[in-house]
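Q: How do we represent a protein-ligand complex in a form that can be generated token by token?
A: Start from the inputs.
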Amino acid sequence: MSFYKNVTAKPWEYSSPTLGTGPESAFASSSERIALTLFLVVVGVIFSLLAVSYYVRMELGDWVPMSDPSLLWVTTALLILSSVLFQLARNTAQGENFLKARKLFVGGGLFAIFFVIGQALAWQQLSSNGFDVANGPASAFFYLLTGLHVVHIVGGLWVWSKTTLRFFSQDDLTSVKHSVELCTTYWHFLLVLWVFIFAVLANT
Amino acid sequence: MAYVPLADQDKDHELHDPHTFITKYIWSQDHKVIAIQYGGTAICVGLVALVLSMMMRLQLGFPDSFTLIDPSSYYQAVTMHGMIMVVYLLTALFLGGFGNYLIPLMCGARDMVFPFLNMLSFWVYLLSVLILMSSFFVTGGPTGAGWTLYPPQTITPGTPGHDTGILLMLISLGVFIIAFTMGGLNYVTTVLQARAKGLTMMRLPLSVWGILVATILGLFAFPALLVSAIMMTFDLTLGTSFFMPAIMAAGEQLDYNGGSPILFQHLFWFFGHPEVYIVALPAFGLVSDVLSTHARKNIFGYRMMVWAIIAIGGLSFVVWAHHMYVSGMNPYFGFFFATTTLIIAVPTAMKVYNWVLTLWEGDIRLNTPMLFAIGFVFTFIHGGLTGLFLGNVVIDLPLSDTYFVVAHFHMVMGVSPVLVLFASLYHWYPKITGRMMNETLGKVHFWCTFLGTYAIYLPMHYLGFLGVPRRYYAMGSTDFIPESAQALNANITLAALFVAAAQILFFINIFWSLRNGKPSGNNPWGATSLEWQTTETPPKHGNWGPDLPVVHRWAYDYSVPGYPQDFIPQNVPGDFGVSEDHDHDTEMKEGPLAK
Ligand code: HEM
Ligand SMILES: [Cu+2]
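Then emit the structure tokens for the protein with copper (II) ion bound:
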């Protein structure tokens, strides 16, 4: 039923039973996908609010622009690779080629781990150049935004590791396939989010 | 994965019945048990907050008579009282408690769609409560910054609990938000995807609508609190200056520079205003169902009620700065927020009219739940009207930070939702326990609470007009406040002690009825919605036995002409309406009463 039909329905009128016998789900997707989508919106709200705070704070007197470490370009590439591998894993799993899908899936996660390591190196580089958290608002936001993003990657990796284990034990491959799909969506989202954060931080 | 609608998946749904005591009552994944765990925990912390408010009242009514209460502990009591009541009691009880109990039952589902996540949500919530409570026992005590936690004073030396206390508060809020998000994703997904056959969105009881929209508000509003809590934690522990300006404390320059306290206020109220509706909307929904059931009438203007809930939910994100009129904002800003604030009063007023019209010419049963529900209509009208005053910038400027504001938000967010909580507890207690609560005790409890809260909060409006400021430990010698204000304060305190004591009746009733209450049967009120149609009361694990219910009508078929009973449950087939072009005899043969 379309949204418009929904909100204009006259529930007090008895409607023909045919209307009343269809199973009632608002969307033709799995519950997991709906919960994930909703969760991604929530994460989006978090980072939008941080971005707004960033711009508000930037207007205030003591803002000193900071150039981002060039290492971030490398980590961005790592995250893109990770996302691509997840997408390939998803496609391969779709074609029921589970052995190959497993390799790609594991690879995707490994590149995400490399990304996290890269981010940690970038932090180290920054702080050895004298930019630590308390150094000024620009570097404070840098650590805050990149840090929270990494937290989300790590959360994703936790699900990834559970899915990997299930991949190896091989039972219930349909549900593994579904997990791979969800992980892929999550990874793409985190990639887009990272590009957004990178752009915000570059605007200094 | 091939998509199978949830309502169709149930045939071979293993119910993995819990067997041991531990899996049944402690690590339970059953939404009904989780609801009781959530509700019980919330009520326990709520009692702590109640005791704190009594401490405050004793000091205000009888200044300097109690050595236990010094300025620091007074501020700590104010802060903890406010935060516990708003977040850890009301939000948790409405959504974690009633949301958990009612959503699957009212939707005709066996459980939430993610039972494990649901269980986790409760335990994480419990953790957040324990972290918060632990702040009472650390050096410096809990934070005394006021429930709004405004920087810079929150983390400036001189404020009680400016280091450990506030840190624990911020951590606890973060943990709470994680718990809420896990629960919230569950509630929304369950309502969207797991409804019984025939139960379209527009056939849902308003309780579910209120809880659904409130949960969505929570999912979008709590991030603002999370973000501000994280940034404040950075300021506190890592020495950043997100919110902290350059500031002197106790003659010393603190190590902060350039941060914006106003930014915090915006973030806080971007959460804070939706939060009041996170509490209000479930109350709106629950009270609609209680009123309709006990007036034996369909809710007046069902669709309007649904749209109003959605409209209020949407608008509540664009009114936040009415809490900041005195922060020195641009007048055009104030104008904008005053306008949106007054607009939100329109759907709110529509709901009030519809409640009153539901009662109009109803076959009203004045039992305890109904009394509380009608009491809510009174208190909510009072609180809503004062909101209209405060929404106008020029009227708000002199009234801001006075007892008028305290009176406003207690009428609208303290008393009103609590009356609905009581209405709902009396109303759904029979379903939860299988026993009725004692009516006489219940009615005494109602009148003490209802009249008592008026005795507390009506005079506060007047104190506000006099200019008595809120959050003051003692008034000192102030010229503009007459002596009589103190007499009033003493009386308010007496009323408050009385109301607090009256709540004992409620707890006696709850525990007494558990064993001695009259057995209720499955549907003691003659209600239509699905939770009353279970074959067992309290419902067993899985709720419905082998077959899920199928829904044939909306939740408000009360006193339908031509039907022998004055209610038609949602799962009864057949058109019994008065419409002329139907042959009643054949329709009746399909009904359950057909011989
Ligand atoms: C007709 C609708 C309403 C309007 C126009 C309105 C307006 C206002 C305004 C302008 C203030 C700020 C006063 C000040 O600080 O100077 C305020 C405070 C408050 N309102 Fe409302 N309100 C309305 C409904 C509600 C509802 C339904 C609730 C809760 C269920 C609520 C809860 C609060 C709370 C908690 C505060 C005080 C927060 C604090 O300063 O600590 N209001 N309201
Ligand atoms: Cu507000």
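Helices of chain A lie at 3-8, 31-58, 71-94, 98-128, 137-169, 173-202. Chain A touches chain B through 52 residues (CB under 8 Å).
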